[in-house]
Amino acid sequence: MARILVAEDDDAMRQFLAVALARSGHDVVAVGDGDSASRNIAQDDYDLLLADIRMPGIDGLALARAARDRQPLLPILLITGYAAEALSARDLIDRDVRVFSKPFHLHEIVRQVTHLLAA
Question: What is this structure's pTM?
């Protein structure tokens, strides 16, 4: 079982992601903004970060950088509804960060999480 931090400002999307990952056997901490996620990253270790790029407070890109500063090997999966953000996110963070564009199927996210955790 992995400990996963989900940072997503859309309540329904956050709940869908948290439930899908919990049903896959993971311990999920879900928050609704970048500032809350940043505090969680600063206080606890996680096995994976799943974050929306665009959200209130610290955005997903800044959150990913802060998470990597604290846990350099932390797998990160970013999600976005904006195609341009998906392209630039890969260049701004590093090639190991996975970026998914909305809309997506939850099973795709769960499969990608499983793959990242196994790597």
Answer: 0.91
